[in-house]
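Could you show me some protein's one-letter sequence and the numbers that encode its backbone in two labelled lines?

___
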Amino acid sequence: MINHFLKAAGWVLSGNLISKIINFLTLSILARFLGPSGLGVYNAVMSSTTSINQISDFGTSIVLQKESAKISAKNKSQIGSLFITTVIVQLVINALICAIILIWPEYFFNILFKELGSIDLLYFSVPIILFQCIAQLALTFLVGLGEFKFYSIRLMMTSIINVLVLALILYILTPNPVTALTATIISVLLNIIITWYLVYIVAKKQDIRFKNNHWVNDLKQIKKDGFIYYVGNTLVGAIVTIVLVKLFAKHISLEDYGYLRIGSSLAAILGIIPAAIQPVTINFLSKDNLTTNSLKSVQIRFFVFSIILITILILLFLNPIISILFGSIYLIGKELILFLVSIQIIILTSGIISNFLVASGHTSFIGVVSTFSVLVNLILSIILIPKFGIYGFYIAHFAGYFLGFVALCYKEVIHLNFILSVETKYMIGLYIFSILALLPIFLIESFIVVGVYGFLLIISMLFLFYHKVMKQNEKIVLLKLLQR
């Protein structure tokens, strides 16, 4: 099982890795063309459109992905019907949202983009809202069916198209947020064509018929299995994003929201491995209801350790990374970027545990926990950001994600009886040690001192991981690989 898992994850990992590198290049181009303020405006608009897409999801995506994984044990016409139902539901909701925005543009401009500048930003966001929905649903379907090779190809192709279109249009036309949004609309349209063509190939290959003849059952299933998960994992988070855009624009600065985009992109590098294993984990554990500790143990130990290690490496070289890729002007936002990268250790570990719970059918629990976590984040942000500015954001962000992380761990270990091996217990100790060991990096200003400290920290962690966290058979495999 683990060999098949790693092979499938390898396709997703390669696609994610290449696409993340290209997306990083895209952000670098945007940062240099638009500047901190322009990047902040563009990021705010894109975050808002993504949030609106998430609001319109209603749990359809997670149900589509999970049920598509069971195609071998389920009538193919039902899978085709579920896909059509989710497409119709999301298209209708997104179309209604776009229509309402266009009927009362000034009202929604004041709600969403008043602090950002021109009302043109609102008009350009409308097609992005609609097109993103169409592209994302097709991608979710590919993942659910286990077509990870096609998924990987799509990620790479669309990332290449995005960077080429953005670079060309920003170079030819006057570089500003509206021009960047125009380029985004064109690239999303091209991405829709590619993604739906891949869906056509896969459907033909697996003999899936797209007939909406089970739509009543589909809607009931979405309500039963997806809605609570949607409320916590998607809806509340989307609302928080929109509120944060307003709070940043009013009480912090648009430049800081631009730094937020850079921090999020660096954090996305950390998310490459979790993003690769997430669809594969759900697919493998959902298909035969496998809940073996072996697959979970490998992920908890090896993947979490890799996240910690990459985090430390990014933090050690944060100054040159920012200066070379985005320009020294963005070093002003180093503190915010450093915080966003560091907290990913907690966020991504929570994501790995969530995959286990989704696969075992506990989507409602995840929804409740996520709702609670995000509400903590939202309430604290509303209270603290007006008083303490960016530090209020730090407190709210950390509190929300940490409480959610604790709840997920409690459910998986205590309620579901996940067996903690000696090696896994050592990994938990190493996890706590690494988080505490990151604190001095926030306080030390000297690049040389940080480098020496980081080097010693990495050596210590590798030593502890090899001698305490790795199992004997894993050490033998590693030594054989090194001897080749």
Q: What stands out?
A: The chain has one domain: 2-483. The mean pLDDT is 78. The CA atoms of residues 57 and 90 lie 6 Å apart.
